Write the structure tokens for this entry.
Amino acid sequence: MKWFIPREHGAWAMLIVPYLIGMFASEVTWLHLIFFIGILAFYFASAPLLTVVRQPKLKKIAVPSFFIYVTIGAIFTFPVLYLHPEIILISLFIIPFFLLNIVFAKLKKERLFFNDLCAIIALSFLVVISYYIGTGTIEAITFILMAINIIFFTASVFHVKTLIRENGNKKFLWKSNVFHGFTVIIFIIVGMPLISLLFLISSIKSWMMQKQKKYKPIQIGLIEIANSVIFVIGVGIFF
């Protein structure tokens, strides 16, 4: 049997970071670990599912691993959903964005910026879910954290695209630079200097990396992982 494993490095960070942010901002429990194994399995299931969407002829090869991943995901998420059924309601907000990702995969337009934004918003709901697992409540801080996460990964997508897909596109580079500057200024205005500092670090990284140089995907991925680690630690300290 062929195992299908997601290979998008950015998506791994988009899955892990919001969950950690919500967990550290609340009270860490064993339920966080159990539920994370479940959503990780569901994330793995997206690989064979999208493979079938892109190439229906591979259905027989992809379906077995899809059902195994989904089964594992159900086993680990069910205990938490039983204790906190409200999570199901929160998850309903994720479905429309996930369906849009499937549509873009079917149209072979997964590289569109809007498709990335849909994935970012969908996975940012993990902040809400993780926070709810730890506290049993949803507060204003939850949506503040979710917004910070969306802005962080939107900036990351801008940056990565300037190095790969949009390399040489001066208009896109200008948009990226402006957006990074916006991330620094907005959090100074709202009175979050530490968060602004985190975005300044991220912005300096984006502004200083030479756009003419050809970076290997692994190099870009490692830099973004390091940036994500700094981000999670900083947000954890602030909140």
